[in-house]
Design brief:
Number of strands: 9
Shape: globular
CATH architecture: Sandwich
Structural class: mainly beta
Order of helices and strands: HEEEEEEEEE
CATH superfamily: Jelly Rolls
Radius of gyration: 13 Å
Strand content: over 45%
Distance between the termini: 20 Å
Largest sheet: 5 strands, antiparallel
Number of domains: 1
Amino acid sequence: MEVINAIARIRFNSAKAQRVQLNRFEGFACDMLCLEPGQEFSSVGRCAYYFIAGTGVIKAGKSSKAVDMGNFVACEADEPHTVVNSSEQRLICMVVSPHK
């Protein structure tokens, strides 16, 4: 068992959204996604997002849904999706995805 202070690992960059590695274990990756206002992060494949702070939008295919603190979103395999920080505040979410 490993205890990680995820909050201490949060970092932001005004030039690019940050995906901060927390842990890799038994086929899964667990990361923190940190977006400044206006930033986007795109991915393809199965993953789950848990929104910790801020508000934004998640787009998958032709669908677009507003998300905020406490929301959980699961994206299907081979489904392109984008997390957008559409607010004036920072957006933080935890991402769990398959890892080889």
